[in-house]
Amino acid sequence: MKKLLVANWKMKPTTLADVELLTRASDAEGVVLAPPFPYLDFVKKMARHAELCVQNVFFENPKNGGAFTGEVSCAMAKAMGATYAIIGHSERRQFLRESDAMIARKVAVALEAGLIPILCVGEGHEVRHRGEAQAVGFVGMQLMTDLSLLKNEPSELIVAYEPVWAIGTGNNATPEQASVMSNAIRKAISTNHPSLRLKVLYGGSVNAGNIAGFARERDIDGFLVGGASADAGEFPKLISIIHNL
User: Fold this and answer.
1) 184 near 140, Cβ under 8 Å?
2) Can you tell me the mean pLDDT for 195-220?
3) Which is the catalytic residue, given 51, 98, 123, 162?
4) Would you say the pTM of this structure is higher than 0.90?
5) Count of domains for the chain
6) Is 129 marked active-site?
7) CATH number at residue 16
8) pLDDT tens readout for residues 115-135
9) Which of 89, 91, 123, 125 is catalytic?
10) Is 89 part of the annotated catalytic residue set?
11) What share of the chain has pLDDT > 70, as a percent?
């Protein structure tokens, strides 16, 4: 598969029967499954081709555990078979008030633990309304802070561009807009962190009706898929489209 598909199931499904159905429908090469934490081991045992991702990690990685009720460390995620970790998703930034300083710590501890961060960045309505230059500048500032704790060592990083202004609003970004931002992300990271091996994903309400247009953009290496990834009837369509491009 040429493009990477990361399936962020969010808080779905709610039963193991549906988890089994969704895992079987999504298990393919080039797919990364990000189920809720309680389903990690179940999905790991079922999946034969897809890789595993956690939806979040704690910003510390105590070797012997820690007094952080409800949190999951990078070491735990790694032990459960995860290869990737979603960090800084727009929902966590908005609803849980995660700051860029906190996200920077998460990125650093994830890399230290051997996980590949999927760092989410993106601008909201007001920034986008002020123009493309402001949007690029906003995302650039996010990246500067989110990656500020990284050492100048070779490592792998995925950045997912989420246009917050286009998610769930009906005002989807165009492939051209996504490509502009992806290119800007590459330039910013190559300038400040040249040792990073980078992939850039797009994550703005991707579905079977629009994924092909975005996939044709050379600057887009894949997709962070939300709602459509938790639909056992819809997500296989996305896999098929990417396979056949």
Assistant:
1) yes
2) 95
3) 162
4) yes
5) 1
6) no
7) 3.20.20.70
8) 999 999 999 888 988 888 788
9) 89
10) yes
11) 98
